[in-house]
Design brief:
By secondary structure, this protein is α+β, with helices and mostly antiparallel strands. It contains three helices and seven strands. The strands form three sheets. It has a three-stranded antiparallel sheet, with helices on one face. A two-stranded parallel sheet has the order 4-7. The chain starts with a strand and ends with a helix.
Length: about 150
């Protein structure tokens, strides 16, 4: 993530740095200065035109990156797990290709899909534990009822 702000001019710390030039930033984040400069130039042209062709940023948020000091953050994505795969009903029944529950087949926990809405907030580590427990109970109760009906 790169952005221009006013501040002190030095590369500082392990994850955040400040510099006078894009070349200094490029060296600090271990990329070719020419590649960074080309990207910044392309972004600035988009700002001038009022259209960001790189990230599709809305016009009101476009700010050219021409005035030092430049700040850079080193960051890495973190993998916390996966969600989804097996579609389920509210009774934790596995839902088949025809959108109908498959009788007697249940699935629970984060290997399922259909309960998490369109997004899952991955920054709240452990927030799927409640669903893992409650979905297990719901599936267990429904599986027991299914078996009793078959007796």
């Amino acid at each position: 993530m790169l952005f221009a702000l006013s501040g002190r001019c030095h590369i500082n710390g392990r994850n955040a740095g400040v510099a006078d030039s894009w070349d200094e930033i490029a060296v600090w984040i271990s990329i070719a200065p020419d590649a960074l400069k080309a990207t910044i130039d392309e972004y600035n042209v988009g700002c001038d035109r009022g259209h960001d062709g790189i990230f599709a940023k809305e016009r009101q948020y476009l700010r050219s990156l021409r005035t030092s000091f430049y700040y850079a953050l080193k960051c890495s994505p973190a993998f916390l797990g996966t969600i989804g795969g097996i579609r389920i009903s509210y009774l934790m029944e596995v839902v088949g290709a025809s959108d109908n529950p498959l009788p007697g087949l249940y699935a629970v926990g984060v290997g399922t899909v259909g309960w998490e809405s369109e997004t899952y907030c991955g920054v709240m580590s452990g927030s799927t534990l409640g669903f893992a427990i409650s979905s297990g109970r719901i599936a267990g109760e429904n599986a027991a009822q299914y078996v009793l009906r078959k007796l």
